[in-house]
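Researcher: Structure for this, please.
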Amino acid sequence: MSDTTTAPATRTLYGIEVPAAGIWAIDVSHSSLNFKVKHLGLAKTRGRFTRFEGTVDVGERPEDTRVDVTIDADSVDTHDETRDGHLRSPDFFDVASHPSLTFRSTGVSGAGESWTLTGDLTIAGVTKPVSLDVEYDGVSTDPWGGVRAGFTAKTQINREDFGLTWNAALETGGFLVGKTVTLELDVELVRQ
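Model: Predicted structure, token format:
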């Protein structure tokens, strides 16, 4: 474990300030993994996962950075127990057979405060490549002497690509649940 009290929290690369190289862990109590999908082709239903963990191994070169996240599929929360139970069923996440969703990065590119993080996302046992638009929000020291970094990320996926094909046709045309799911992440990391 590095000594965060004496090691610099940031460094300058390509003329911009970025987090120092090393291992950073997700602070779950100050991070959120949210999603939204259209319902009846109208409003967006929103949800989140409440239990997850992960690390970011910030490389000496940003391109060498690695991200590894595991999400407890059973922690899905849309503020509706009946819907959450359906999402946990074999129609969607099938948590009995696939208790975790995972993301493993395969590449990082970009500059300044805007980056693209690519990786393999696994949902219900199906793995597909995804790209997330990432914004770097900065580094700060907390009142206890720890060092924290903030990031936001966003992407869209087609849930059917991951085998989540359950739906119901509407009498007026269209379907009950949209295919496109927007993922929005607010992540606070703690330097280890």
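Researcher: Any notable elements?
Model: The mean pLDDT is 88. The domain at 10-191 is CATH 2.40.128.110 (Lipocalin).
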